Amino acid sequence: MKKRVIIIILDGVGIGELPDAEKYGDSGANTIVNISKSVNGLNLPNLEKAGLGNIIEIQGVANNPDSTASFGKMNEKSLDKDSTSGHWEIAGLEVKTKFPSYPQGFPIEIIDKFIELTGVPGILCNQAYSGTEALNDFGEEHLLTRKPIVYTSADSVFQIATHKDIYPIEKLYELCEIARYKLFSGNPNIARVIARPFTGNNKNDFCRTAFRKDYSIDPPRKTILDILKNAGLEVAGVGKIEDLFNFRGLTKSYHSKTNEEGIDTTIKFLNEVENGLIFVNLVDFDSLWGHRNLPEKFAEALEYFDSRLPEILFALQDDDILFITADHGCDPTTKSTDHSREYVPLLVFGKQFKAVDLEIRSSFSDIAATIADYFQIEFPENGESFLRKIGKKEFSR
Questions:
Q1: CATH 3.30.70.1250 occupies which residues in the chain?
Q2: How many CA atoms lie within 13 A of 395 on its CB side?
Q3: How would you classify residue 211: left for phi > 0, otherwise alpha for psi between -120 and 50, otherwise beta?
Q4: Which contiguous run of DSSP H or E holds residue 15?
Q5: Per-residue exposure over 229-267, b if at least 16 CB sit within 10 Å of its own CB, e if not
Q6: Degrees, nearest 5: CA angle 311-314-316
Q7: Could you give the residue range(s) of every CATH 3.40.720.10 domain in the chain?
Q8: How far apart are CA 60 and CA 26, in angstroms?
């Protein structure tokens, strides 16, 4: 029998601080709840029907005792709070050590080596910085000097911002590839090198484009993507999945650049993939609105996703399982512009499955274990399956 599972990651949509959030400077973070308060209530009728309001009290989203999906939240066991560790843990690989970060900027020897390897005339910034503020503060100098804007954040990232008229997009990608594969090829290392192209003529109209590209390190061990692919199943990635896994474990991929395009591609793949996994990242919540501390826009993005959810559900087949979750928080109501250390929501849809309270899952990897259980293939190294809990008939006890 052919089976499919779909994972949709609402990038950055956390649902309350983790017990260790204080260690990360994230006390009080609660992305979706704080947004709901900021906009005097969210209008999410389809997610409300599914049971989102059963996980936690969200202004505008009621509790639903007759939810159409199983619901709960998940604890992150990995020690970071970024997309790489979040997605890897969802795929069954917990990150036991933190990726190196550079909150004071990169050491001069790293910057000098980057300049030597790329031949650029120097760099600007070299600080932990908000991406939009980096453009405002250094964009005009970049236009005059051709020096790339290099910055980081609380996460393990080396970000390179260049204007599309100064460095064409392929040249920016080349700079990032040099950084990824030559500069950060071992020690020192970093989780992601990120291309941040932008347009505009001055700080009043600089704007990042949709051609961001992430260059991640390889997962150090097998994930559920590798296990599925090795078992002869299809593994389709949508959005930045290909970047975060460095194409490992994928049989096909499409790098959608917006939530709208990502949802359209998901529905397209639901009409193409016959047996396996469709793994989707919807990045706009995080990249456009979370990091820029724009709760109203974040709310609009959530409501847009909610409006498209019925199309996704309509495309599901009888034996499909759909997981909707997130990879970390990115609370736009706090002073920080970084990710936040939070639980993530979990909604599980399936025409053949019961809607139950999944409570607090101890690891994001429970999704990977459940997928392995469903396909009756090798289990990932982490995670506990909740397949029997959601109760497909032949697995009921």
A1: 108-216
A2: 16
A3: alpha
A4: none
A5: beeebbbbbbbbbbbbbeebbbbebbbbbbbebbbbbbe
A6: 115
A7: 4-93+219-395
A8: 24
For residue 340, give both structure tokens: 């936040």
Q: One-letter amino acid identity for 269?
A: F
CA distance 12 to 289: 10
Condensed to tens digits (0 to 9), the pLDDT of residues 26-38 reads: 999 999 999 999 9
Which residue type is seen at 290? G
pLDDT digits (tens, 9 = 90+) for 316-369: 999 999 999 999 999 999 999 999 999 999 999 999 999 999 999 999 999 999
Structure tokens belonging to residue 261: 């395009």
User: How does residue 397 score in pLDDT terms, banded at 50, 70 and 90?
Assistant: very low
Question: Which pair of tokens denotes residue 304?
Answer: 């847009």
In sequence order, what E strands does 239-320 have? Answer: 252-254, 276-282
The CATH superfamily assigned to 4-93+219-395 is: Alkaline Phosphatase, subunit A (3.40.720.10)
Contact indicator for 2, 319 with CB cutoff of 8 Å: yes
Contact assessment for residue 273 and residue 229, using Cβ atoms and an 8 Å cutoff:
no
Q: State the residue for tokens 């199983």.
A: 70
Count how many Cα atoms sit within 13 Å of the Cα of residue 303 in the half-sphere of its side chain: 14
- 252-254, strands of its sheet edge to edge: 252-254, 234-238, 276-282, 4-10, 321-325, 344-349, 70-74, 357-361
β-pairing, 149-152 vs 157-163, is antiparallel
pLDDT band, very low/low/confident/very high, at 394 (cuts 50, 70, 90): low
Per the rule left: phi > 0, alpha: psi between -120 and 50, beta: everything else, 394 is alpha
Given a cut of 70, is residue 395 above it in pLDDT?
no
Domain 108-216, CATH number (from 3.40.630.30, 3.30.70.1250, 3.80.30.20, 3.90.1640.10): 3.30.70.1250
C-alpha to C-alpha distance for 256 and 282, rounded to whole angstroms = 9
With b for 16 or more beta-carbon neighbours within 10 A and e for fewer, the 195-220 pattern comes to bbbbebeeeeebebeeebbbbbbebe
Q: Is the dihedral of CA 141, 145, 147, 148 positive or negative?
A: positive
